[in-house]
UniProtKB/TrEMBL annotation:
Component of the ubiquinol-cytochrome c reductase complex (complex III or cytochrome b-c1 complex), which is a respiratory chain that generates an electrochemical potential coupled to ATP synthesis. It is found in: Membrane. This is Cytochrome b. It is a multi-pass membrane protein. It comes from the Bacteria. Its cofactor is heme b; heme. The keyword Heme applies.
Length: 430
């Protein structure tokens, strides 16, 4: 990216600060004058939504930590006390619990946007890898947080998931003992999970900062998937253009979030988690939170314990390697007639795995989970081959060309065209 700084210190004090610690310049260049492609759609607003949700989760989590008691005999009652006795404790807890679901919903949409528009391709490989790193930290923090209420599903979920590490040769049992802090899931486990759950969101702030930094260094992708050639014609300042769009999207998302908090706050939780943990009673059907269900289905689809753990891990790691697995030179799926339906099939497979993960591991559900698991991994096998054989559609010469061409076809050209773009559009239309 070129040096796009347009900040000019307005006074003597600002000039003094700018010469020693240019924080005002940094803020201006990041949130005001930063050039963004003028053809971005609302899928690009989920980055701002995720930043807001991370801040919300940290603030509500800090408040809950002030009242939560990480003790096996007191944890469940402390959560109930937050709900009943702490001023607005019910609201803070519902914001935090449902916020995790909203966080994952937004991140899955954010990832799908990256898959559809090829945002993982060069020169944005590091951005993509950092994004998947953020997802892994989120998943770890969410799992640890799910254990803290110390209900039935919390206790048995922790038991099942931590036992998976025992499948690792040589060091598996040592890892499990470290996680438990003893010979079974108990009070030491809860203490360790609470401390790690409190720490991980602050680690996430660091990796998200690197993610945004890398994004601002190489620039944003856009729906056409082609690079910016003319900053004057192809970009607009972040403020007010992207800021207004992000604000509208955030307000709309918060309205959706508020509906769950105020009208269906417990809908996404499991009924067994409102029962105190009882090591002597195993729930009939142990399931994680909905955002883990696709990977849980893959885990259960493999009959071998170690094989299931490897498959579940590879299901996430393969996504991180997409910049090198996708061999096509074209970024956006708009211009890839074969890869586009394959991606939609992959998305449907992921949703199907989520449904199968919520069902009992028996009968036809197991067979279907194995078929869907094969389809899931088949996407990563087929993508490199398709990239070599596929004949993409012609790419536009400028990122604004598709929009301007559509307006010209409709008989309502509303933006001035220079000679080169105008000739290109006229040629396309004719």
């Amino acid at each position: 990216m070129r040096d796009f700084s347009t900040y000019r210190p307005g006074g003597r004090f600002e000039r003094w600060i700018d010469g020693r610690l240019p924080v005002i310049r940094f803020a201006h260049d990041t949130a005001v004058s930063y050039p963004v492609p003028r053809n971005l759609n609302y899928f690009w607003t989920f980055g701002g939504i995720l930043t807001l949700m991370l801040a919300s989760q940290i603030m509500t989590g800090v408040f809950l930590a002030m009242h939560y008691v990480p003790h096996a005999a007191l944890a469940f009652d402390s959560v109930e006390r937050i709900m009943r006795d702490v001023n607005y404790g019910w609201l803070i807890r519902y914001l935090h619990a449902n916020g995790a679901s909203m966080f994952f919903m937004a991140v899955y949409i954010h990832i799908f946007r990256g898959l559809y528009y090829g945002s993982y391709k060069a020169p944005r490989e590091i951005i993509w890898v950092l994004g998947i790193t953020n997802l892994l930290i989120m998943m770890a923090a969410a799992f640890l947080g799910y254990v803290l209420p110390w209900g039935q599903m919390s206790f048995w979920g922790a038991t099942v998931i931590t036992n998976l590490f025992s499948a690792i040769p040589v060091v598996g049992d040592t890892i499990v003992s470290y996680l438990w802090g003893g010979y079974s899931v108990g009070n030491p486990t809860l203490n360790r999970f609470f401390s790690q759950h409190y720490l991980l969101p602050f680690m996430l702030v660091g990796t998200v900062t690197l993610h945004i930094w890398a994004l601002h260094h190489v620039g944003q992708n856009n729906p056409t998937g082609i690079e910016i050639t003319d900053f004057k014609k192809d970009t607009v300042p972040f403020t007010p253009y992207a800021t207004i769009k992000d604000t509208f999207a955030i307000v709309s998302f918060m309205a959706f979030f508020s509906y769950w908090v105020f009208y269906m706050p417990n809908y996404l939780g499991h009924a067994d988690n409102y029962i105190p943990a009882n090591p002597a009673v195993t729930p009939a059907h142990i399931v994680p939170e909905w955002y883990f269900l696709p990977f849980y289905a893959i885990l259960r689809a493999i009959p071998d314990k170690l094989g299931g753990v490897i498959a579940m891990g590879m299901a996430i790691l393969l996504v991180a390697f997409l910049p090198w697995l996708d061999t096509s030179k074209v970024r956006s799926m708009r211009y890839r007639p074969v890869a586009r339906p394959l991606l939609w099939m992959f998305a449907a497979t992921f949703i199907g795995l989520g449904y199968l993960g919520s069902m009992p591991a028996e009968g036809g559900y197991v067979i279907a989970a194995r078929i869907f698991t094969a389809l899931y991994f088949g996407y990563f096998v087929a993508l490199p081959v398709i990239g070599l054989l596929e004949r993409p559609l012609p790419l536009p010469l400028a990122i604004t060309e598709p929009v301007l061409a559509r307006r010209l076809v409709n008989g309502r050209p509303s933006l001035p065209l220079d000679d080169s773009v105008g000739e290109t559009i006229n040629r396309k239309v004719s």
